[in-house]
Structure formats: structure tokens, C-alpha cells
Amino acid sequence: MVRISPIKPFLPKNPKEFCTNPYDIIDQQEELELKKNPNSLIHLILPDGTGDEVYENAKKALVQLKENNAIIQEKIQSIFVYRQESPNFSQQGFIMGSSLEDYDNGKGILKHEYTRAKPLADRTKHITITHMAAGLVWNVYKSNEKINSVMEDIKKQDPLYDFQKYGYRQILWKESDPEIIQKLKNLFKNEKLYIADGHHRCASANEYRKLKIKEGKKPTGKEPWEYLLNYVSSDDQIKVMAYNRVIRKLPITEEDFMKRLNEIYCIIPVTEGFNPKEKHEVALCCKGKWYKLEVKSKKFANIRDSLDVAILQDKLFSPVLGIEDPRTHKNIFFVGGLDDPKEMEKYVTEKGNDLFFNLYAVNIRDLESIADLGGVMPPKSTWFEPKVLSGLVIYHLGE
């Protein structure tokens, strides 16, 4: 169902100094600190400047990184295994190319979210001018013992990289044996990939591919721009966390809000914040007071509608709070990667917001089922952690 390919990427000379978090989770303070290092990926993914100057500066940064030998291109095609390890959690997957045609036709690489025009245009322009992909699209496959076994065999080699960063041991292995690569190609022919993280990066790579075809380039299955740079892991190797919702200001009175909320949920006052233990249970901090919410009606038209994020959006945020498009509405924002209710409470008691909704994490099987049916989940439904490093491999898409 999906065609994979080895890649011949640029690799960093000093990965610990070079690699960063994905561009969209780097805050201003971290960005300023990273930019003190002339050989950091930050200059490529978040260059200085305004307007189109940003993309030209990214191109210049790429030239400088090459001249400094901060990144060096591999001479042979390979597939990589990438593992992140800590005492509490570890995950691993392949880094390789996957056919963008299989994304475009919706048969091999399946999405579960819509993209937004502005970030898509930004990433597309970045790729078009630099001809490089430095951020990994995170895809998952349904756990497959044979594929997982190949991964374990590759890990028996000495690693290419082994270093600590962001609280995790970061390990990379390289496999260049044509027989093993062909074995993986054959195994993945029967699989589908599900986008976990990186819908905009995936869509922008496909826009670049379509641009090349429009220019008269013929897809042969061997062109770098026909493939997506991705990290591909088994669905039993990942940790899905809740992507919580914060409402800045209630547009109605607290009394009216609680009445409308009671139409959807059983409302149980609690003495302190907590993390929900199952689907259809929500922890709400409303103006400093905590409530346990339990969904009243559990009759749903489909899996998508049964998601806690969908219930909130369809039955509360849109009709009651007037938040029709949570991707652009200014009265809502999202908090991922936070599991301490005391820290959640501070968003209300110290940061001036009215509501914090602490959700139960979406099950990865629900994500896969929705994608299989061609469905789309509400924006910001899932948060994955740890984030995979950007810059561990840099993929040249061709001029």
C-alpha cells in the first residue's frame, strides 16, 4: 500500500549541537539561545528577517552550514533507525523516504487533520527556495512483527550517533545493505501509514512534488522530490498525550455556561484538579473551581463524533461559545505535553484565562480508524511526546 525508499541525506557533523526541536514548538527564548551557535539548524528552519527575506536567509544559512562542514552529504543511500530513550519511556522508528504519490492519492499515507493555508504556504515556500527538508513527518504503521524484527536487527550494529539531548538518549543507526532495504520495501507494500505529527510538512512536500511535475519533470520513482522525509514507527511504540483546551474569556455568564454544560455532561464538583482516567471523562477548571464532567449521551454517529475533542467542539465550543473554527479563533488556545493539574490550574488562577479543559488522550486506534474511513479529526486532537529531533537527517529534494 505504501512505497518506501532509502535516502542519501546530509548528516550533521555534531548532532548534539546541530539538532533542534521541531520549528513550531521552539519558543522565543530557546530560539535566541540556539542562534548563538553558527552551526545550529535553527538558522535554516527559523531564519531572521521579514517577508520573503526569511526564505532567502534560510537558503544562505544552508550554504553556510555546508561551507562550515556542519552538514555533510552521505555517498550511498540508506535507511536509518532512530531511538529515543529515557528511564520512563522509549520509542523508535525508521527514518526513510515514503512515496508522496501514496499520500496524494489517499491510499498509502493517510491524514486525519485539515491543513491551514498560511502555515502550508510558509512551509511550501521554504522547501521551494531551499530544496531541503529538515523536519521529520511522523507516521505510524499498525504493529507488524516482521517489520519490527528488521528494526531490531539493524540495532545490533554500532550506532552512527549516540548522544543526550532534551532529556533523552538519542541514538541513530544506518542500514545500507540493498537486501535488507528491499526486504523492508516488500514488507511495507502491505502497510498503510498514518500521519501522527506533521500534516503541514507532508502537504508542503507534496506541493513541491506537484510543482516539479508542472515544470515538466517526469516522476520515475527515483527522483528525491517524489518522496517524503519521514520517521515511521509502530503504533505500539508511541505515547499519545491529550491536547488540552483553554478558553480565554467566557462570552456568557458563568451561570448560563453551567446550564448549557449540564445539557451535555453530568457535572460533579471536586476539590482539586485531576487527570481523566477514561474516554468521555473531562476535568474542567472553571474560574479556579474544578469539576469532573461525564458525557451523558454516548450515542454517536461515528468514531470521530465520539472523541472528547469532537464532543467539546460540536456541542459546546461552536454552539455555546461561538468558536466555529478553533484553528483561527482568538478565544481559544491549546496546551500539549502537560500532565500536572496544578500547572493546568495556573492557566486560570495566574494567567487570566477562564476555562481549562483537561482531556483523556485520544486512542491511536481511533485515529487510525478515522483515517481509514477518510475522516478528519478536530484540530489539535493529539499531542505526541517526545518530539523527534529536527536536523538528525536533512533531505535534499533536488533542484
Q: Which regions are unreliable across 5 or more consecutive residues at pLDDT < 50?
A: none
* Gross morphology: globular
> Sheet bearing the most strands, described?
9 strands, mixed
- For the record, give the distance between the C-alpha atoms at the N and C termini, rounded to a whole number: 28 Å
* Count of separate DSSP helical elements: 14
| Percent helix | 25-40%
* Extended strand count: 20
What oligomeric state do these chains adopt?
A: single chain
Mean pLDDT: 97
Radius of gyration: 22 Å
Strand content: 25-35%
Compute the number of structural domains: 2
Structural class: alpha+beta
3D structure, described in words:
- Helices cover 32% and strands 25% of the residues.
- The strands form 4 sheets. Strands 1, 4, 5, 6, 8, 9, 10, 11 and 12 form a 9-stranded mixed β-sheet that branches.
- The mean pLDDT is 97.
- With 399 residues, the chain is of the alpha+beta class.
- Helix 4 (53-67) crosses helix 6 (117-130) and helix 6 crosses helix 9 (199-214).
- The protein has 14 helices and 20 strands.
- A hairpin with a 4-residue loop joins strand 4 (79-85) and strand 5.
- The protein has helices spanning 15-18, 28-34, 42-45, 53-67, 101-104, 117-130, 145-154, 178-188, 199-214, 254-262, 303-306, 308-317, 341-349, 364-372, and strands at 4-5, 10-12, 71-73, 79-85, 90-99, 109-110, 132-133, 137-141, 161-165, 168-175, 193-197, 227-234, 240-247, 265-270, 281-286, 289-295, 332-336, 355-358, 382-384, 395-396.
- The chain has 2 domains: 4-239 and 385-396, no CATH class; 240-383, Conserved hypothetical protein from pyrococcus furiosus pfu- 392566-001, domain 2.
